[in-house]
């Protein structure tokens, strides 16, 4: 039974719809919750894949949040071992950071529903293939990643050029949140810190507009998301091809 390691940063950002999907596939999940255990040191050798979830912190907060350095080391180890890695939002930014790419602020925050446009490479990608060429997805981020060297650019949005990438054959970074359901979106909208972030972003839309858009788009996104995540989980059972990465010291 393949064992999957999951890095969770805050209780408000769980696996969402990925959780039951992973369990139906028969994978065992080992969570590392950095809100509860910020100093946890990580040995990835026993795991067949890694999923790094989102969170309200940023990659440049490593001096204040030691777990971000520990995560970077673990992601690097997984990549060197050729194991599948999926980074979502902050997780995608950490993956890009490990691969040497900057993680700056985005021009404007994206919070709510936005059209995602796949690139030609995204249309041909075996994991992202189930997503329509243009489709609404749920977003909640203020930072973004630059495209890592040797990575394949898979998707963009109107306000954020770098939305998804693949590195090698089985490492993926998604800036957007395919794992959301209506209940989890409502949980974020009612969270005081997240609500303040939305109100402070001055985007021209608020919680009620997001609720309306959620009712319109959530079912279609979930159907596509399940197919995308199943494709990623298929990679967990494939033979591993190790990668040689530049030597880095995460300090």
Structure description:
This protein is of the alpha/beta class. It contains seven helices and nine strands, in the order βαββαβαβαββββααα. The protein has helices spanning 18-24, 66-80, 90-98, 120-124, 182-190, 192-201, 207-236, and strands at 3-8, 28-33, 49-52, 85-88, 105-118, 134-143, 152-157, 164-167, 171-174. The protein has a nine-stranded mixed β-sheet. Strand 3, helix 2 (66-80) and strand 4 form a beta-alpha-beta unit. Helix 2 (66-80) crosses helix 3 (90-98) and helix 5 (182-190) crosses helix 7. The longest helix has 30 residues, at 207-236. The radius of gyration is 17 Å and the shape is globular. The mean pLDDT is 93.
Assign a percent range to the helix content.
25-40%
Order of helices and strands: EHEEHEHEHEEEEHHH
Counted by DSSP, the helix tally is 7
DSSP, total strands: 9
Q: Which class of secondary structure composition applies to the elements?
A: alpha/beta
Strand order of the largest sheet: 2-1-3-4-9-8-7-5-6
> Which geometry do the CA atoms define?
globular
From the alpha carbons, calculate the radius of gyration and give it in angstroms: 17 Å
Distance between the termini: 35 Å
Main sheet? 9 strands, mixed
How much beta, percentage-wise? 15-25%
